[in-house]
Design goal:
The complex is a heterodimer of chains A (182) and B (112).
Chain A (H helix, E strand, L loop, with lengths): L2 H4 L8 H22 L2 H17 L10 H25 L3 H4 L13 H18 L3 H12 L4 H7 L4 H23 L1
Helix pairs in contact in A: 2-3, 2-4, 3-4, 4-8, 6-9, 7-9, 8-9
Chain B lengths: L2 H10 L7 H16 L5 H6 L7 H21 L7 H7 L24
Classes of the chains: A mainly alpha (182), B mainly alpha (112).
Chain lengths: 182, 112
């Protein structure tokens, strides 16, 4: 854990302290949610996570870092959303309820930006195919650079389990991406 | 694709950034939350919830199981009717001792 996080207050019962912790981590939390869902859903998920965390802030005992705790709440919200999407897909309601993803204008966008968007799409799809634990470990540690200790606290598991999920997730991602890119 | 190729690919994917207007909405949402808190965990804890009580589910399961067995035991079973069963059993009434002769006279006369 970096020294800045170690010095963070571990008591979030005070609304002002909660607010400053949430503000300090909002960008990193948003990136985690956006890797799991998409931009619009990530914003909604983060709002929902802040509301849930604020309501449950009395239960935060300071054993984990505030970031890990907020991240755990956010991951729960993301899981709920992914579960809802799976149900909608199973019931074939997606065509009605979800608007199609906006396709960027190929002429107005520079080629590099288009390529970056295409890579991001490939990565999102490859990550979405991974099992839940591998997906979450990969997003937190490999993509967002969260410390394994914090990731383990956010995922409510051991550091060894995070390393294992990470290793398996990377192997699966390599296989999927080499299939797609070849 | 090897490990370093994967790292290069991941590095090439720009992280999703929080757009300024989305950020403003988030901050406004947080401010509203802090200014007018909907409910704290303590207030929520007063509301009784089945989902928060796994033991309640266990208890409900145990009661359901017990009721199932009770219904099963109470159901008519094949075999002789209860009255016929009693015919083959020994008399359940205990042997009653014959009444003793009661002494009604003067107790001091007993030892004379």
């Amino acid at each position: 854990m970096d020294p800045e996080r170690a010095a963070e207050p571990r008591d979030l019962r005070d609304p002002e302290r909660f607010r400053s912790a949430a503000l300090a981590h909002r960008a990193a939390l948003y990136r985690v949610a956006a890797r799991m869902l998409d931009a619009q859903a990530a914003e909604d998920a983060l709002q929902e996570a802040f509301a849930r965390a604020f309501a449950a802030r009395e239960r935060f005992r300071g054993e984990a870092s505030p970031f890990a705790w907020l991240c755990a709440v956010l991951l729960n919200v993301c899981r709920d959303e992914l579960r809802r999407r799976a149900v909608r897909r199973a019931l074939r309601l997606d065509r009605v309820l979800v608007e199609p993803e906006r396709v960027p204008d190929a002429e107005a966008t520079p080629p590099q930006a288009l390529e970056a968007q295409e890579r991001a799409r490939l990565l999102r799809e490859a990550i979405a195919e991974l099992p839940r634990t591998q997906r979450e470990a990969l997003v937190l540690v490999s993509l967002e650079g969260v410390a394994v200790r914090d990731a383990a606290q956010a995922l409510d598991t051991s550091e060894a389990a995070v390393w294992q999920a990470l290793s398996r997730g990377r192997a699966a991602l390599r296989a999927t991406l080499s299939e797609v890119t070849s | 694709m090897n490990d370093s190729d994967l790292d290069a690919f991941l590095a090439g994917c720009a992280p999703p950034e929080l757009a300024p207007d989305a950020d403003r909405r988030l901050v406004a949402g947080l401010d509203a939350l802090v200014a007018a808190p909907p409910a704290t965990a303590e207030a929520e804890a007063v509301v009784w919830s089945w989902r928060d009580l796994p033991w309640a589910w266990l208890l409900a399961g145990a009661v359901a199981l017990a009721l199932t067995f009770a219904v099963e035991l109470g159901a008519p079973r094949p075999g002789p009717a209860p009255r016929e069963v009693w015919r083959y059993l020994p008399n359940p009434r205990p042997e009653v001792d014959p009444p003793q002769e009661r002494f009604l006279g003067d107790p001091t006369q007993l030892f004379n």
